[in-house]
């Protein structure tokens, strides 16, 4: 049961991290689909734990809609919660969504749905009182956002005063702030000419612009705004449908995109989805799907909300577009475990607003499966709209200029003869800490949260310490002094003392963390926990043999070979024994 709780804790930490990256820093590192999978897994696990231990009476993490605000801007409280949307990338889920709705209003047959574009921008809440723009804020955590009123004032497509008739006493207008593709291209070209950092995609550019302290910079970015709905709506004139509301909002001076559909039939929704999907490249702004909402405001209120989503709406995301390009080279990277990873370099292409120029080919097996050569034409996509991958090789376009991918025989860093992994799908360098490229990655991992965790010693500082001759093996972390650290550019006196204190603190390390920190091939966090739970002490682990290892549930033959090769290496065992004398390695039984 402890291992189940640890898994729950790990999932919570992952979700908090991804909430922070997406909502607070506007720099997501996973797709919405993968994020939803994490949330679903957490809900399922907490139900199991809750049934047996009454552990989870309420889950505030999953009720959290966005992320914490940055401290740069003041708080702005929404009058009504600014909720996220439940999403899917499976078209067949449209049918299930409609069936789900029927559970709440099964006595109504002809339900109308409002379908429009899911613009890939930054959600913003605009508060108007008696027709005047009072404040503007980001989504934040769904209840409290960041006050960005000064920056919103310079966006020309957002009226400062509503025009026309029937203006409500209070209304929260909600929509997406975005940058057009053409303006985004110009923005990055300008950054390149000024030798400044470019934006990876248009959403980040829009979000980063709204968080500028200088409104003049925001004005130069040419931000746009499209309305998708409203929150609080206090008016003498009642509106009973989402479509009616948006039509009225448009009359008050807002922009609403012309591509939308009000319909009842599933086939019409799917037809709308396909139309938008195939025409998305013609739009001058990024979209990542369509949104389907119940059109009736009365029914919306009746159906209500679940956790952080309205039950009456769903986003249907598009699959990543495939883009054709040409392989121009293949390089071979050395990871911390010595594995040689082939990386395909191709003519840069723009996929959904992100410039992609390389993709991992993973191993020998994948290269054979794809039948890929240098100078081949290929189709590239972003898996989950994040990770670049090669989909297909266009064999019909292959010519005599193609060259087979030749794997190196020796390590490019230390010149050691490369060996085949136990499953023969990868090559690896066996030199461990003696290989400079591999050693760098090992040292970074050793000091990371996955290893013994020395706070303040990230990749940049570790590279500096190596270049100054202070760091070669993990033992050298514990030989560092304040004077040595202060001699490194960028590490002052205060940080030096802090790092030394953190090094001292890191000497108390769990057995599973220590095993993981060593960088043994195929031994990550979960395998390290299995090993620690079996052996209980570091000495018992070092005294093991292949037959004992291969008999442990969850380990297997290939991992057993990797472990034995690592701990039988004289240089490796010398480093481990010295670390044992320095560290307090303990085990907590599960």
Question: What is the compact description of this entry?
Answer:
This protein has 590 residues and is α+β, with helices and mostly antiparallel strands.
Characteristic terms for this protein:
D-amino Acid Aminotransferase, Chain A, domain 1; alpha+beta; 4 domains; Helix Hairpins; 590 residues; OB fold (Dihydrolipoamide Acetyltransferase, E2P); globular; 37% helix; five-stranded mixed sheet; 22% strand; seven-stranded antiparallel sheet; single chain; 22 helices
Strand-pairing-aware structural class? alpha+beta
CATH class division of the largest domain: Alpha Beta
Work out the helix count: 22
Straight-line N-to-C gap = 8 Å
GO molecular function, one term: DNA ligase (NAD+) activity
Keywords: DNA damage, DNA repair, DNA replication, Ligase, Magnesium, Manganese, Metal-binding, NAD, Zinc
Protein name: DNA ligase
Binding site for NAD(+): 32-36, 84-85, 116, 139, 176, 293, 317
Helices and strands, with pairings:
Blueprint lengths: L1 H23 L7 H22 L6 H4 L11 E3 L9 E2 L4 H10 L10 E7 L2 E8 L2 E7 L5 E3 L2 H4 L17 E9 L2 H13 L8 H9 L4 H6 L3 E11 L7 H10 L8 E4 L2 H14 L7 E8 L2 H7 L1 E2 L2 E2 L2 E5 L5 E12 L4 E13 L2 E7 L3 H7 L6 E7 L3 E7 L25 E2 L6 E2 L7 H11 L12 H9 L14 H5 L6 H13 L2 E3 H7 L7 H11 L2 H5 L3 H5 L5 H12 L2 H13 L1 E3 L4
Parallel strand pairs: 2-13, 21-22
Antiparallel strand pairs: 1-6, 3-9, 3-10, 4-5, 4-7, 7-8, 10-13, 11-12, 14-15, 14-17, 15-16, 15-20, 17-18, 19-20
Helix pairs in contact: 1-2, 17-18
């Amino acid at each position: 049961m402890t291992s189940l709780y640890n898994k729950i804790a790990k999932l919570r930490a992952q979700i908090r991290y991804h909430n922070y990256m997406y909502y607070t820093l506007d720099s997501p590192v996973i797709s919405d689909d993968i994020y939803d999978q994490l949330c679903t897994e957490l809900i399922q696990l907490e139900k199991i734990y809750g049934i047996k231990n009454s552990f989870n009476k309420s889950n505030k993490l999953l009720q959290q809609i966005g992320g914490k605000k940055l401290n740069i801007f003041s708080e702005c409280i929404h009058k009504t919660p600014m909720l996220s949307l439940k999403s899917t990338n499976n078209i067949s889920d449209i049918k299930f969504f409609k069936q789900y709705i029927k559970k709440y209003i099964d006595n109504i047959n002809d339900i109308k749905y409002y379908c429009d574009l899911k613009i890939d921008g930054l959600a913003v809440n605009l508060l108007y009182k008696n027709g005047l723009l009072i404040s503007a804020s980001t989504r934040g955590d769904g209840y409290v956002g960041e006050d960005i009123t000064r920056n919103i004032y310079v966006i020309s497509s957002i009226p400062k005063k509503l025009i026309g008739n029937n203006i409500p006493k209070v209304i929260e207008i909600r929509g997406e702030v975005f940058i057009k593709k053409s303006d985004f291209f110009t923005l990055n070209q300008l950054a390149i000419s000024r030798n400044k950092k470019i934006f990876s995609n248009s959403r980040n550019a829009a979000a980063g612009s709204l968080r500028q302290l200088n409104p003049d910079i925001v004005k130069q970015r040419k931000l746009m705004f499209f309305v998708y709905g409203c929150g609080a709506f206090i008016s003498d004139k009642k509106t009973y449908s989402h479509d009616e509301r948006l039509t009225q909002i448009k009359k008050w001076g807002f922009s609403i995109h012309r591509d939308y559909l009000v319909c009842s039939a599933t086939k019409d929704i799917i037809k709308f989805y396909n139309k938008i999907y195939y025409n998305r490249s013609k739009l001058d702004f990024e979209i990542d799907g369509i949104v389907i909402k119940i059109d009736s405001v009365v029914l919306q209120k009746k159906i209500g909300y679940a956790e952080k989503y309205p039950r009456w709406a769903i986003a249907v995301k598009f699959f990543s577009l495939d883009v054709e390009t040409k392989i121009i080279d293949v390089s071979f990277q050395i990871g911390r475990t010595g594995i040689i990873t082939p990386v395909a370099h191709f003519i840069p292409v723009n996929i959904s607003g992100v410039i992609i120029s390389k993709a991992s080919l993973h191993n020998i097996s994948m290269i054979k499966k794809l039948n890929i050569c240098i100078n081949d034409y290929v189709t590239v996509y972003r898996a989950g709209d994040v990770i670049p991958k090669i989909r297909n090789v266009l064999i019909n376009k292959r010519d005599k200029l193609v060259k087979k991918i030749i794997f190196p025989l020796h390590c490019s860093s230390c010149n050691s003869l490369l060996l085949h992994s136990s499953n023969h799908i990868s090559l690896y360098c066996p030199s461990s800490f003696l290989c400079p490229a591999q050693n760098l990655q090992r040292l970074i991992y050793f000091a990371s949260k996955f290893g013994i965790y020395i706070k303040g010693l990230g990749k940049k500082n570790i590279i500096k310490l190596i270049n100054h001759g202070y760091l070669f093996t993990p033992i050298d972390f514990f030989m560092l002094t304040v004077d040595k650290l202060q001699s490194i550019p960028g590490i002052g006196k205060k940080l030096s003392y802090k790092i030394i204190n953190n090094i001292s603190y890191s000497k108390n390390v769990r057995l599973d963390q220590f095993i993981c920190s060593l960088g043994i091939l195929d031994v990550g966090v979960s395998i390290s926990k299995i090993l620690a739970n079996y052996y209980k002490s570091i000495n018992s682990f070092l005294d093991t043999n292949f037959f004992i290892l291969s008999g442990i549930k969850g380990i297997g033959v290939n991992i057993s070979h990797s472990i034995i090769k690592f701990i039988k290496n004289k240089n490796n065992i010398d480093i481990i024994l010295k670390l044992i004398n320095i560290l307090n390695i303990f085990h907590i039984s599960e």
